[in-house]
Amino acid sequence: MPPTSTRQPANIIGPRLRAARRGEAGQPRALTLDELAALLPDDLGLDRSALGRIERQARAAKDYEVVALAKTLGVDVRWLLDCQNDSGSS
Fold this sequence. Notes:
The chain has helices at 14-21, 33-39, 48-55, 63-73, 77-80. The chain is mainly alpha-helical. Helix 2 (33-39) crosses helix 3.
């Protein structure tokens, strides 16, 4: 029987990032990955593909990216990091 691999997620923010982007954390409306990418600072370098990989927990998110994502989505960084159980609005 082949060994089963237990792949560790590359980040912990993926599910919360997706919820916030989809408006499930108190945001006024849902955003597409393209819309979120367009709202982020250009020098951040996060495009649709990178955001999708973060949401799927296939790519790590750098600390400054987490801060920019939280600010852009209007959620608390601690909520995005799964340290708070509330709706996430700051």
